[in-house]
Amino acid sequence: MASKNTEPDSQAPLPSRHGHQMETLYQISHILTAGTPQKQALTEVLDTLDRELGMNCGTVTLLAPDGSDIMIEVAHNIPEQQRLAVRYRIGEGVTGQVMQTGKAMAIPKVSQEPLFLNRFNRQSDTDEEISFICVPIMIGREVIGTISVDRVFARLAALEEDQRALSIVASMIANSVRAQREIAHQREAFEDENLRLRNELQDKFRPENIIGNSNAMREVYRAIHQVAASDTTVLIRGESGTGKELVAHALHYSSPRAKGPFVRVNCAALNENLLESELFGHEKGAFTGATQSRKGRIEEADNGTLFLDEIGEFSQATQVKLLRALQEREFQRVGSNRTIKANTRIIVATNRNLETAVDDGTFRQDLYYRINVFPIFLPPLRDRKDDILLLADFFIEQYAGRMGKDIRRISTPAINMMIAYHWPGNVRELENCIERAVLLTTDNVIHGHHLPPTLQTSDATDTIGTGSLSEKTALFERDIIVDALKRCNGNLAGTARDLGTTARIIRYKVKELGIDYHRYRRTR
C-alpha cells in the first residue's frame, strides 16, 4: 500500500493499486451517505483521499448563488483565512476553465502550465514536481463546482487513473449535493405551506371573523381581546352549539402562542381510563394494550394551547391530577413516576352548571376556582336574534359555494320563521337548517318550505290558516311588496317597475300595510 507523498505506481503493481482505489471509493460512498452536514462530509472525503491515495491539498469549489464567482467550499491542509480569501472567476485558471467547459484537466507538472495560478502557494516537501487534477462536479449538464487535488509527479498512466477515480468521487458528491438540494427544497416548500396554513388559521379564527354584531357578542369580543395575550386559564361557558371551540381558536391565534400547537380534547367522548391516558400520556406496559410509550395531549401542546371541551365530564380522580397540572405545570404519565413539565396554556369549556355540580359534590370546588379565573359567557342564539340573518347569510354563501348553487336571498316568510324560532341547538342548529335549505332549493331563493318542519308555521309557509280573506290577502300582498323592496334596495320607483305597477300605488300600499321601506335601503 502506498503511503502519503510516495509514488504508488513505483511501489506496487497496478492491480494492487487499483484495488486500493476501489476500497477508498467505497469508504467515500459511506461518508457521503451517512447524513452528516455537507461541509463536514466533504472535509472527510478530502482527508480520505489524502490518507489513502496520497492526493493532498484537495479543494472543493462551488459556484456562487449569483453565478459570478467560484467559492472554495472546503480545502484540505489549507488555512481557513486563506481559503476564504481565494476566489476564481469563470474561465480563470485551471479551476475556472474546468467550471466553464465541464471537462476535467490533469496537469503532470504545474511548473510548466501557464493556466495554473497557484494561489495557495503549493510546493512539494521534497522539492519534487507537483501534478494537479481538477474534475467538474455536475448535476445533469449543469456544472455546480469542481474537486481538485495535488500529488507528487506521477507518470501519465497513473495520472489518468487518478483522474478517473476523482471523477467517480465528483459524481458521488454531485448526487449528494442534489439530494441535499431536494431535501432543502422540500423543507422550504413545507415551511411555506405551514406558514400559509397558519396564516389561514389565524385569519379564520380572528375574533373579528366570528359572526355577530349584537351587544352580547361585542362583550365576547372585548373579553377575547382582554385575555388573549396572557397565559391566564379561560373558562368558556355556554349552551351546546354556541361556538365555544371557535372562541378557543380565536384566543389561541390572537395570542403569542399562535405559532405553537392547538390541541383539542373532547372530555365527554372518553371514559375515565382513556381520558387520563389521553391527557397525561402513558408508558409502555402501563395497562393492557399499551405496547409503546405515548405522549399525552398536555405534552403535545407544549408552547401552545390545550383546549378541554366539556370539562364538566371529568371524574373526581382525573380532576385531582388536572388540578396539579394547572397549578404546578407538571404531571406524570400513566405508569411512570417521572415528573414532566410543560409550558401549556389551558382553555376549558362546558355547557354544564358548574356551581350546581360543586354543590352536588360531582365537581371539585378547588378545581372550579382554579379554572374560573376568566370566564367568557357565550349567549344562546335566542338572545342574539339580531345575528340570525348575518349567520344565515354566511352559511348560505358557504354551502351554496360547495353545492354550486346561486342563492341570492331568503324570502320574507322564511326570515319570519327563523326570527320566531327559539333555536335550542343554537348556531349549530341554524347551520344545519341552512345546509338543508340550500340542498332543497331549486331556484335562487330560500323559502319557508325549505326549512325543517320544526320552524314552519302556516303563515310562514304560505299555507292556508285561520283568518278572514282580507287578512290573508293583506299578508300575501305585504310579503310580495317587501320582497320587491329588498330586491330594489328600498327604492319605491324601482319596486313599482319590478311589480309592474305605478309608484303612486306602491306608496299607498306601503302606507296602508305599515311597511317601513327605509330599512331596506343599503348604505354604500
Structure explained in plain terms:
The chain has 524 residues and is of the alpha/beta class. It has 3 domains: 8-183, GAF domain (Beta-Lactamase), CATH 3.30.450; 220-379, P-loop containing nucleotide triphosphate hydrolases (Rossmann fold), CATH 3.40.50.300; 383-520, Orthogonal Bundle (Helicase, Ruva Protein, domain 3), CATH 1.10.8.60. The protein is built from 18 helices and 17 strands. The chain has helices at residues 14-32, 38-53, 80-85, 93-101, 156-204, 215-227, 244-253, 272-280, 297-300, 316-328, 354-360, 365-371, 388-403, 412-420, 426-440, 469-487, 492-499, 503-512; strands at 56-63, 69-75, 87-89, 105-107, 130-139, 142-152, 234-237, 262-266, 281-282, 294-295, 305-309, 330-332, 339-341, 345-350, 374-377, 409-410, 445-446. A 6-stranded antiparallel sheet has the order 3-2-1-6-5-4, with helices on both faces. Strands 8-11-14-7-15 form a 5-stranded parallel sheet. Helix 1 runs antiparallel to helix 2 (38-53), helix 13 (388-403) packs across helix 15 and helix 17 (492-499) crosses helix 18 (503-512). It is elongated. The model is unreliable at 1-14 and 458-466 (pLDDT under 50).
Number of domains: 3
The averaged pLDDT comes out at 82
Largest sheet, if any?
Answer: 6 strands, antiparallel
Overall 3D shape = elongated
- Tally of helical segments: 18
- What is the straight-line distance between the termini? 90 Å
Low-pLDDT segments, ≥5 res: 1-14, 458-466
Structural class: alpha/beta
Task: Count the beta strands.
Answer: 17
Enter the CATH topology name of the largest domain.
Beta-Lactamase
